[in-house]
Amino acid sequence: MYIARQPIFDKRKDVYGYELLFRNSTTSIAYTGTSAESSTAVVLGGLFELGVEKIVGNKKAFVNFNYNSLLSNSIELVDPSTLIIEVLEDVKVDSRLIRRLESLHKEGYRIALDDFVHSIKDFKIVPVADIIKYDLIATPLNTIQDEVKEALNRKKVLLAEKVETEEEFIEARKMGFHLFQGYFFSKPVIVAGLKGKKPNITIYRRILNELHSEDPSFHILAEILETDVSVAYRLLNIVSKKDDNIQKGLKSALIKMGLTDFERWVHIMMLQDLSVNKPNELIRTALIRSKFGELVANNCGSLYPRSSEISLMCLFSVLDAMLDLTMEEAMKDLSISDDIKDALINGKGALVPILKLAEAYEQGQWMDIDLLSKQLQIDSNRLVDWYMDSITWTDKIMTGV
What we know:
Elements: E1 2-9, E2 15-23, H1 40-50, H2 52-56, E3 60-65, H3 67-71, E4 83-87, H4 95-106, E5 110-113, E6 131-135, H5 145-153, E7 157-161, H6 166-175, E8 179-181, H7 202-211, H8 218-225, H9 229-242, H10 250-257, H11 259-274, H12 280-298, H13 307-315, H14 319-323, H15 327-331, H16 338-346, H17 352-363, H18 366-376, H19 383-400
Helix pairs in contact: 7-8, 7-11, 8-10, 9-10, 12-13, 12-17, 12-19, 13-16, 17-18
């Protein structure tokens, strides 16, 4: 089974929940039988075994249901405080379905109507629905103004799906939408007059240059850290949390952490500092991709020796969005390999397939996942475990820093 997730944001760009995308790993590239939606009952059992809370944390889990899966008793495997039931747009509405949705609603489950194209006044299951989802490609904002007003009058929560730009997010928010789904949060927003203006990353560049030198020196690294009290403080703070007895000093903290973990920590700190006014989910995406890429590389014979390089490539894959620059501008002056730069700027080189796999997985592009898995000669059935491990690792990192 493949499981991916896509973030759903509130008006402040904080994560409200995740839509879970899934597919049985036994399904062929060209679907010839059961679709992902009609196998929801089976997948819910899998989610129950994995632990939905491990996938979405303390956020909501949006899961698609068709007619048959809505009538199954598998839904009750997942706690109503976590699960939001998405009723697919083509579901057959009859008295049996309405009774079932009313019963689920009484049990505490929230109901969402997916890709809504009907009339708010006339569609029979609107009264039991809590959330109305509009696909902004299928139903652009300027075509649903009256429907949005009616939905708001009925106290419905409105979710804009496939929001691809910051402008769409702002417009939908002004119209009254409460929740937002799409990749607007991970794309650069170039502001006139500010293009090319980068935050100060001098200390990180100096640290990375020393780390990548032939013989990195703890003494020199400590001297660099002494020039930035904020970064130095955070290093001492995180090491002290792990060892209360450590001698309080930058060099001893560096030795305790070790060069490998220190470099990882520097990458994360840099991303945090560069992502001012950006959603935390952008950092989370970078970290999940980084760990996922590393795990894939560790199980890919030809790329195993380059797992650290691949991890860094995936980590920096959202750097353009964080800096609101082109990737070429974002990569300038960074002390990283030419192969990483070629992959991120030009989409070329031996490292690219793993980055494409990470991106395809988070978007639920199953056909691409199958093809890339075969190209990399990895067992695609293990992807869900690596993805889950990446989420767990990222949650620990985000909590720690």
